Amino acid sequence: MVETLSADRPPARIDDEARRTQPRVRTGVHFMLGDHACAEGALAAGLDFFAGYPITPSTEIAEHLATRMPEVGASFVQMEDELASMAAIIGASAAGARSLTATSGPGFSLMMENVGLAAMMEVPCVVANVQRASPSTGLPTMVGQSDILQARWGSHGDYGIIAYCPASPQECFDLTVEAFNAADRYRVPVFILMDEIVGHMTERVIIPEASEIPHVPRKKPDFSPGAKRFLGYAADDDLVPPIAHAGEGYKVHMTGLTHDEKGYPAMSPDTHHQLVNRLVDKIRLNASAIERYEEFELDDAEVVVVSFGCTARSARRAVREARAAGIKCGLLRLITVWPFPEGRIRRLVEAGKVQRFVVPEINLGQLRREVERLTNLPVRRLNHAGGSMPKPDEILELIRS
Amino acid sequence: MNAATAGAARNGTASTWQIRIGGVGGQGIVLASKLLGVAASLYDGKEAVCTQVYGPEARGGAARSDVVISEEPVDYPFVTEADVLAVLFPEAYSKFRPRLRPGGLLIVDSQLVKAADDEENIIRIPATKIADAVGNRMARNVVILGCLIGSTGVVSREAMVEAIRNNMKPKIVELNIRALDAGIRFAETGELP
Fold first, then answer.
1. Is residue A274 part of a domain?
2. Considering only CB atoms, which residues of chain B are within 8 Å of chain A?
3. A320 contact B CB<8A
4. Tens of pLDDT along B70-125?
5. What whole-number distance in Å separates Cα of residue B177 and Cα of residue B179?
6. Cβ(A296)–Cβ(A139) under 8 Å?
């Protein structure tokens, strides 16, 4: 008997409950490695498909998923390289799977071409990059935060992107869930920019009940297949088009070439201009809904430390100590580096209390450049090229000076 | 000796404990630190962060673990000045001794590490011998843990037993609880099993 597909009977999910021998969501309180928390966050978010090429310090993500995914009836593939890994998760996602790959700097570089493809075809997917000291192979086992600008600008051309920077294993879990939801909500590749210290740190992680894991579904066509022509690139007011998956019965065409609303190549400057502007604007104009940051002691702060990832842990200690010494100092911890919370920094500057910014980071000034772009106030820097994280004392010294 | 050491270790840094365990790969350094973190974080209601540094070798390379335990959330995750340093290998002693804060507690496996004669706040424990006596020298790391918690009270015995039960294979749980108790007893009384 030949079965036909219809919206009433969606295709069997890749994640087959009959094959599930362990729970998807490990509800409970754990003492968990950051990399494992990322993997568990992905599973809790409904990860259907992982394709990757293990690389230090992200290896524990792949290693953990290689065990866990068969237990929950999902698919794990170890690929031949990172180009193929990225291509595979785009393909799986186009078929409806929530898809993840995990890597570090050298692999992230190799993925960049297909990151652009995912951005152009608007295929949701999540890439965890556990940053190590770079460039090139650098210090494989040691920390870096130097892929910040690559995450924003790494693939050729203009496009919008989302990148989360967890500062603890708990956030590795929470932000991985959020990354999948953001990817699906905005039809965009999303990065989890971890770092070696957070990835290899073990700390308490609380995993909620499965019913409490936030789930944002993909925006689907609101009519049955065949009822009318589906336009996979006709955006709504929020600039995000609905997505139909291969095999659901709708006509779907995806290409990296400039395309019209049907997804067919349409090689005109006007179409290109409109399309690329929309790819950028769908993140830029939705930024206030996407961007996330944490404020600590900012209300009357004259010195503001802007930090992210593991470095923010040192920064928080430094701010506590500065406050104890009577210095009006606060921390703006970026949870999304992209979109960069420009509005918050502008408001801080306009409020007139801030006298200077301090930006510690494990690179030679990538985030400082972003802060400098928004203010004429002095921006003090504390940079290490990688392998070591700024210590609280070093940041405190800069706050005092 | 032991009452004095416990007091000295407690007085230094208010509610935060910085603990470093050093040795070589294969001695269970990473597992020991994880057990300590689990006990503190999951069963004793404290905050704990664990980090490790080890080489690419499965056995034999230098290994160290840092555990920071506090009543407050832990910001900076590494040991800056150790309140307790436990070492199971000579290189770990020479390498990490400068990180021990003045008055901090040093615990050495006396069969593996020859500490300087003028060390003041030190427990020299024949951990390998004790582990052999309770059943397997692989449990040496847990003997050291017993000594560490027995002399400092940084986590409770009950929490550590829970950590062992939930993080080790069932067939080695009882062995490791014996090792833990032998370590605690040595710290408290200086007695060998």
1. no
2. 34, 37-38, 41-42, 47-52, 74-77, 80
3. yes
4. 999 999 999 999 999 999 999 999 999 999 999 999 999 999 999 999 999 999 99
5. 5
6. no
